[in-house]
Fold this sequence. Notes:
Number of strands: 12
Strand content: 15-25%
Shape: elongated
Structural class: alpha+beta
Helix content: 40-55%
Mean pLDDT: 81
Number of helices: 16
Amino acid sequence: MAKLKLPRLFAIAIPCLALSAALAVQALSSISTRSAPAQSVSLFAANGLAYEQLAFQTFQSQVNEGLELQAAAQMAQAQAEQGLVHDPLSPKSYAILAMASDDPERRSAILQSANRLNRRDISLQGLVLQEHIEQEDYRGVVSTLDQLLRVHPGYAREFYPLLVDVLQNDEAAPLFPDIMNGGALWHENFLLFAARDSAAQPNLASIRSQLNIENDRVDRLLISGLVRQGEEEAALSLYNSLRVPRPAQESAAHLDWEERFPPYDWELAAERDFRSQPGRDGSTLELYARSGQGGTIARRIISAPSTPINISTNMAMRGQGRSDAVRLILRCTSSQDAVIDEPLAPGDNSISVATLPNDCQQLTIEINARALRGEPTLRAELEPISIEGR
Length: 390
């Protein structure tokens, strides 16, 4: 499974530090401290907040002139040290001292001490994050990002890709349920982001039942994404964990028109001229195809039942239509070979299936509808499909 990508961290953390340098320092003691720190220091030499701001202005100007971060921080180091002498809680002063140090152990000690004092400052937290990444401390990475995104939700676009990289790691994925408990807005938003990433989907599916966040969109994305990449077992396991009623494998099965989690529920066509939808009471599926339109109008996957079986349904046509305008097709998902391809006639329909291929673990049921050019619009209603052992 993918390891955490350090270059991505640097691409994120360093711009955040530089951006933080450009932002106005928050919660300073006075307007003069914020806007004119040098003047404030000259007026009151013990103003630690002013020294912190002055140090960050120095750091910012050196970065803007093209100096490397460590060299820029060293230029501001003396001012940062003065800031800590007069105000031991100055987070940006700690950040500058950590960046200025070329001793990894000293840098780590500075960050650990500073992190205990302040968990809100983004420049400081960016460095803490970098430290956790370098040590492959995945719990620290996820915890720090949780804190950052709670305080600074506007950085989601920058940090979500990094979290996805962490989620792809088999060792890190089990750490997410302890932290992502739904207590912050970003938790659910990140799930939607991660559920679209094919590389993260298997690990996200493996911990999905432990995440106390209900979101059908997340589960639809996960189930359909896993099926697309051939992870049918994981997709079906997730589907079953959602406690959605589904057909029994050995006896009679009644396939209603539920469309909550395709493809294990129905995937329905939804174009203007070619669509299907459950009727008002949900007991029938309404089919609609304008002249010249056709194709798969409804599809779902089921576990392959024991054969022989009998498939039955009832169809009502509005007006006259071709005898093969609506067809029922059964395929093995592993090979896409058609097991049956039979037209459905108005009234009761019964189709027998004697055997299935030995490697056929799952079946795709398709309803195909077509109105040829020059024909009237096809309108039909289909009752739920039943599958019974013979």
